[in-house]
Design goal:
Shape: globular
CATH architecture: 3-Layer(aba) Sandwich
Distance between the termini: 25 Å
CATH class: Alpha Beta
Low-confidence stretches: none
Order of helices and strands: EHEEEHEHEHEHEHEHEH
Mean pLDDT: 95
Structural class: alpha/beta
Bound molecules: manganese (II) ion
Length: about 290
């Protein structure tokens, strides 16, 4: 390594970017999206990309859960230039960035920011894939048609995603929703919503997926005892061990996009940022 230095604002173990044309096909590229303008409770997820990257330096290269090192090279391209206060324009910029990543055969690994940005990321992925199953870990369904008259919000994002041309939406860890959202989930036969008690059934569902997969994780899927600093903490959630169970079911599947959102840590070394970072670290060990 030249000068024997490292970049603390790049995810640990990420490879140096030398030439985009020489990047290994199907590697992952991290993009931070420091945007939190539609957050309805705790704001601060704009600091997610920084606090999560910093926390990544606490882990070993060898992942004892998956019994392997992080083998596949991945890259950290820094943070998106967002437009504070404008969700749609920020999503358009992110979609364009994901298009560019796909052009170089790099798969997007998005660190939020809040959940509304998932719309821009999935739109970008859909420009490259005809079929897509979205796996959605969250305490909330996020299937409202509008939230206080806003169509584009972190509370409506999976409704907007479902309106795109996706094959299936699989929601896991769900425990907070309106009657309208529950009816929408029940009346659309390509939506499955699994409660915390039904995680085992969601694993069977994941096992049967044949299409490319986009995985979106709202960190509030975890119980607040593991991840207190999220935008909308919701008691009685899943544990980090449950996310590892889900990840083990994803081994060998065709994952083409990933995001982790709603981390609102506001200081370095925060337990929520460490947990977020561990989830991304586990995800990167799958390949
Ligand atoms: Mn949520």
């Amino acid at each position: 390594m030249l000068l024997n230095t490292y970049e603390p604002w790049k995810f640990a173990f990420s490879k140096e970017i030398v030439n985009l044309d020489e990047i290994q096909k199907d590697s992952w590229g991290i993009i931070g999206v420091p945007f939190d303008s539609t957050s309805s409770y705790h704001t601060g997820s704009r600091l997610g990309p920084i606090t999560i990257r910093e926390a990544s330096f606490g882990f070993e290269n060898f992942n004892s859960v998956f019994k392997k090192n992080i083998n596949s090279p991945f890259y950290d391209f820094g943070d998106l230039n967002t437009i504070p206060g404008n969700c749609l324009k920020t999503c358009e910029i992110l979609e364009e960035t994901v298009n560019e990543l796909n052009f170089y055969n790099i798969k997007p690994l998005i660190i939020g920011g809040e959940h509304s940005i998932t719309y821009g990321s999935i739109k970008g992925v859909l420009n490259s894939y005809d079929n897509l199953t979205v796996i959605h870990l969250d305490a909330h369904m996020d299937l409202k048609d509008d939230f206080i008259d806003e169509k584009f919000s972190h509370a409506t994002v999976l409704r907007r995603v479902h309106e795109l041309d996706i094959d299936e939406l699989i929601q896991i860890g769900i425990r907070s929703f309106s009657k309208e959202e529950e009816n929408y989930s029940i009346s659309n036969n390509n939506i499955s919503s699994f409660s915390v008690e039904n995680i085992k059934n969601s694993l069977d569902k994941i096992n049967k997926i044949k299409t490319p997969i986009y995985l979106t994780i709202d960190l509030d899927v975890l119980d607040p005892s593991f991840a207190p600093n999220v935008s909308n903490p919701t008691p009685c959630g899943i544990s980090p061990n449950d996310t590892e169970l889900i990840f083990k079911e994803l081994v060998g599947k065709n994952l083409v996009g990933f995001d982790l959102v709603e981390n609102s840590s506001n200081k370095l070394g925060d337990i929520t940022a460490i947990t977020s970072s561990k989830i991304i670290y586990d995800f990167l060990t799958l390949f």
